[in-house]
Amino acid sequence: MKELLSTIVFVSFSIVGTAQLKNIRPSVTGNIETTFQYLTTDSTISAVAPEQIGVLNSYSNINYALGGFKAGMRFESYLPAINGYPAFYSGTGIGYKYVEYSNDVLSVTGGNFYEQFGSGMIFRSYEARGIGLDNAMEGARLLFTPRKGVHLKGIFGRQRYNFIDGKVNLSEGIVRGLDGDVNLNEVFDSLSNSKLKIKIGGSFVSKYQASNNDSLVIPNNVGSYGGRIDVRYDRFYINAEYVHKDNDPSQMNNYVYNSGHSALVNLGYSQKGFAVLLSGKSIDNFDFRSDRTVEGNQLFIGYTPALTKNHTYNLTTLYPYASVPLGEIAYQLDVLYKIPKKTVLGGKYGTSVNLNVATSFKPIQHSTTNFSKDRVSYEGRPFDKSDSLYHFDFNIEIKRKINKKLKLSLSYFHFKFNNKLNNVTKSADAQYYIKSDIFVLEGLYKINRKHSVRAELQGLFTKVDKQNWGTLLIEYNISPKWFFAVMDQYNFGNSVESQRIHYLLGSFGYTAGASRFMFSYGKQREGILCIGGVCRPVPASNGLTFTFTSSF
Q1: Chain centre to alpha carbon of residue 486
Q2: Which pLDDT value is given to residue 373?
Q3: Given the DSSP bridges, would you call strands 54-66 and 123-125 parallel, antiparallel or unpaired?
Q4: Mean pLDDT for the chain?
Q5: Do the beta carbons of residue 468 and residue 492 sit within 8 Å?
Q6: Please, which residues have CB within 8 angstroms of residue 5's CB and are 6 or more apart in sequence?
Q7: Which residue from 361, 365, 359 is spatially nearest to 378, judged by alpha carbons?
Q8: Which of 64, 271, 352, 419 has its CA 20 to 30 A from that of 155?
Q9: Most confident option among 136-145, 207-216, 534-543
Q10: Is 342 exposed, middle or buried (0-12, 13-18, 19+ CB in 10 A)?
Q11: Is the dihedral of CA 295, 299, 302, 306 positive or negative?
């Protein structure tokens, strides 16, 4: 760390001296985010206060730029981490640091970086702070644009594993990768004005980890490679990507020698007032990590996208969908249509309708007779699905502006959730499928130019688990500085009368320029928090939460 900081300071002063001769001004930017919780024990919702009572997550990014030179770092603090955060976050220290130089042709980064190849299935280094996921690379990255329309990437390094006692620990394995994109319309002058737009790309990623298993012959190097294409013509578009992974025996796949694949296809059409998107995904034995012994949400090299709508209403996240890297075939249909204004159904301002259907299945695993010889346990084929349903999601949303002051939306959701696959409840009557129906009515009323009121009324109905829920939210906004909100989530249908609990939560916030303060106090139910198909459990809590964010 000292050597890196010394290098940053030395290079900074060298460039500052040169830049002053050219009238180039340096800039410093960054942001701060702090979340503090003061929690209490509440036996009615099984909430247990931490020993320290007060817990804190804090981050601060500082970035320095001068011409083509950039350098920065992120300061992190978990004293200890907030409620439900992974246990491998603790202490205070520098969790991210980098030095970068860029011009029109070349960009070189040393230290930490985030990067993605294609859709991210073969390689995606990213941070999802809400669920405590961070697999930042530490090493070197090279971006090269030899000519217009051609983009090349190279990465080499190790992934961030955890942050314990203020120190970043890295994965045991080393990740190496190459990626290329070619925009044919930019490369060939004859296609520059064509309505047909074509991009092609390809990637290769491998990991190295020395074998640590005395009973099996495990490959030290595991490679994956794939290609992609994006074609657009007028209002139509199609993009597809396919990735193959060599045999990768690991803790997650029970050390079998099957190869794996990941495929994603999107077909769409859009015009003014109408758009449709049909997507398909096929995953088999694609749990690709830089350490074969790690489980959970750590050290993923690639990213398995979730083919489902990103739901934001409180009750729609009660039984969440998570991607299944070991095997899943999924489809999604998304249709948006705006009924024209000044019609019977459209009204004065028009009416928006969004229909979404998503479903996922277990793939068929064709039998093989050579397991004792080559430890290949089955044969997997792309988009070869079984009748075993993992998840089904049907939802429709209708939005309409009634007049200049009032906007309303009505939504309906139907879920069929496989609790055996992704266990979120231990209820005896919910050992397999959980079916639920959710209705949401939302309204926004503008009192005047600065004052407005927003309200949500939600109802979830199911015959299993804790049965029926209701949520009422009322939010008052004084633009651009203040907001006040009260939410009550009530388990009114619980068959155990003593468990018909109100989860009452009040909050208010204040915005001053680029800074925002928010306080909330009340109860939070136990559940699962998901971002992009990656989930983590969140325990019940009762207490005060303070959040501060600011950028400069």
Answers
A1: 27
A2: 65
A3: unpaired
A4: 92
A5: yes
A6: none
A7: 365
A8: 64
A9: 136-145
A10: exposed
A11: positive
372 membership: H or E segment, kind and range? helix 371-374
Got the DSSP string for 302-335? Answer: S-----S----STGGGSS-----TTEEEEEEEEE
The Cα–Cα gap between 17 and 368 comes to 68
Sequence-ordered list of residues with C-beta below 8 angstroms from that of 344, at least 6 positions apart, any chain: none
Helix (H, G, I), strand (E, B) or coil at 499: helix
Contact between 360 and 390 under an 8 Å Cβ cutoff? The reply is yes
The three-point CA angle 377-383-389 to 5° equals 85
Q: Amino acid identity, residue 203?
A: S
Is residue 2 left, alpha or beta, with left meaning phi > 0 and alpha meaning psi from -120 to 50? Answer: alpha
Yes or no: say if 305 and 264 are a contact pair by the CB < 8 Å rule.
yes
* Beta-strand runs (E) in 79-172: 91-102, 106-113, 115-117, 123-125, 127-128, 133-134, 137-147, 150-164, 167-170
Cβ atoms within 10 A of the Cβ of 77, count?
19
**Comparing C-alpha atoms, which of 199, 275, 261, 251 is closest to residue 225?**
261
User: How big is the chain, counted in residues?
Assistant: 552
Query: Coil, strand, or helix at residue 53?
Result: coil
Residue type, 354: N
List 108's β-bridge partners, or say none: 101, 142
d(CA 294, CA 341): 55
For 452, half-sphere exposure in the C-beta direction (CA atoms, 13 angstrom radius) is 16
At residue 1 the predicted structure's pLDDT band, cuts being 50, 70 and 90, is very low
Per-residue pLDDT, 319: 87
- Residue whose token pair is 């609990």: 501
Determine the Cα–Cα distance for residues 219 and 270; give it in Å rounded to an integer: 46
Q: Is 349 helix (H, G, I), strand (E, B) or coil?
A: coil
State the Cα–Cα distance between residues 301 and 171, nearest whole angstrom: 11
- Tell me the β-bridge partners of 408: 400, 443
User: 178 - beta bridge partners?
Assistant: 154, 204
The position carrying tokens 């030395």 is 10
Window from 28-37, 79-88, 165-174, 354-363 with minimum mean pLDDT: 79-88
Rounded to an integer, the average pLDDT of 336-347 is: 94
State how far the Cα of 89 lies from the Cα of 164, in Å rounded to an integer: 6
Rounded percentage of the chain residues whose pLDDT exceeds 70: 95
Strands 115-117 and 106-113, by their bridges, are: unpaired
Beta-bridge partner residues of 396: 355, 412
φ and ψ at 542, to 5 degrees?
-145, 120
Give the H or E element holding residue 266: strand 260-271
Amino acid at the residue 374: D
354 vs 273: CA distance, rounded Å? 11
